[in-house]
Design goal:
single chain, Serine Threonine Protein Phosphatase 5, Tetratricopeptide repeat, about 650 residues, mainly alpha
Length: about 650
Amino acid sequence: MQNEVMTCGGWLTFHLLVQPHPPAPLMFLGYKEHQKRSTLNIHAIYSLKIKRSSNTMDYDDAIRNLPIYKAAMKDDWVTVEHIFDVHPDKLDAKITCWWETPLHIAIGTNSSHVFVNKIIERIMDTDARKLRTRSWWGNTALHYAAKVGNTIDAKLLVSKDPDIAQMVNKDGHTALKLAAKYGRLGTLWYLLQVTKDEPGEDGTSPYNGAAGADLITLTLTAGFCDVALYLVKKYPDLVTQKDREGQTALQVLATKSHLFPSGSPLRFYQHLIYACIPVNLEKSSDHLLASFFSKFILLVAPCTKEIYNMKLRHIQTLKLLEQMCSIVLQRGSQAIAWDVLGTAVSTAVKNGLYELIKVCVDTYPDIVWYEDEGFYLFLSAIRYRQEKVFNLVYQMTGHKVFSATDNPKGDNPLHIAARLSPLPRLKTVSGAALQMQRELQWFKEVEKHVEPLYKDALNKDNKTPRKVFTEEHKDLLEEGETWMKDTSSSSTVVGALVVTMVFAAAFTVPGGNNSNGLPLFLDNGIFLLFIISDAIALFASTTSVLMFLAILTSRYAEEDFFYALPKRMMIALVSLFLSLAATMIAFSATLALLLQDEISWISVPVTLFASVPVTLFAMLQFPLLVELVYSTYGPSIFKKKM
């Protein structure tokens, strides 16, 4: 039977319906895509084939039409013009295995504009309906233009056939939706102007129902807040509608950390620029304000334009968020507000987007009691270790919502804080020791606010919070101990070598001693520098060795990671750095002292070279030291307004 069914449509449909995999080599180009298609889609393809049985093709046509394919790719109209003169039916011939026409191929290059212009002229002269010829998956040429962002040819197509913008492919996508899906901003703005708010081929409007919700969620996924703001203002019903994945626009927005300031980390100088740079929402995000100040900061800081666009995006996001929350309340339905705002808040807390949560809670304060998997908002902040959300809710509400314990394991808030952080949040701190410290900080912070009864309460597993903490952090405790011991052991060797060298140097002073046992260079200022630096090196290296030994002999209890061990590691690292720096100074002073009469210029290069190992040590260890100091002595991550 397979040998009898030789047409493209018949052969293709037969194999799709009776075989789990498409035949090779016929279907190899789209194998992965076809694996994703459901049985319903396969039958939809079958229906498409039945409707277009007259348009089936011999797959050898793909070889015979190869010159047209290459000409369309290269924008070479002259080469194939005579072919269309002789065979006008090839204007919409299917020249690939996916039923793509020369117009599809040329538009898909986003560069063959001459070819597109000429072939559209020919089609309009023969049969304008050929502009709507579809590919195998139901895509028109406008769909291809939307995919690649070919606004030039999209405008030409729509000018010839305005209703082509309403056509959908087999996934139910208009060209407008594909422009949003593939992140083609320019084409998306254009198609928004020409795609009408009226039923299309599938009987639904592109701006209503699941199709409209798809459009705005895809727009937000691409990060086009200005487009989303436009859609919300023009079609407010989109805010409360759900897309094909069952998500609202607010829920999708709650996953886009980069659209909010908290999800856009900046360096110190970038923060200064961000705070000072002016933003005008009336102007395009591609242009800075035409002011002297803007031109000046753009000159001294080339990254200004990027920061400007980032700040503009953040402001647009905030306005979009406020607009959507306002629309939700205008519906006057508690069920809608609870569903739309609640799902957005529960998603935002997982991503730490406290800005979104703040606007939602300001809009509808009762949303703090929205339950997600048995956890209210405050408990979710503890569960996902989102300190900014934790602080925000505590400051905004004045509610002590710790009493909610209806989660699956019957844990009270302290049990929740005792469990191991989700891996992404745990990895925000480097090193097992500091991760253990952060876990203790969370546990102690929650412990301050719970009822005394909760501190020894049992959950459904008959475990107290402290027991849960010990069991959950057993592996992390071992990793922290191993890291501390390995670091201390390696550093102790270095410290001991420095102690040995500088101790010996103190009794074998440069130049030797006179008959009275006094150093010959005793009155020289450089010798005084040598003595002082040697003494500092000795004291600092001895201190570092003692601190590292104290770490090695520590009991490594859980509480030790909160303060004692980080403090010892800080003292040890600082002491080791001082000892190395002082040793290099003593060495440089010795050379300068001995060679000052013979080679007076030796001090400068020696000093430069001596600074290399000190600089390397600082570069390698300074980030760890800063993190230790900041985590132990820096401002608390828990900040509450009284």
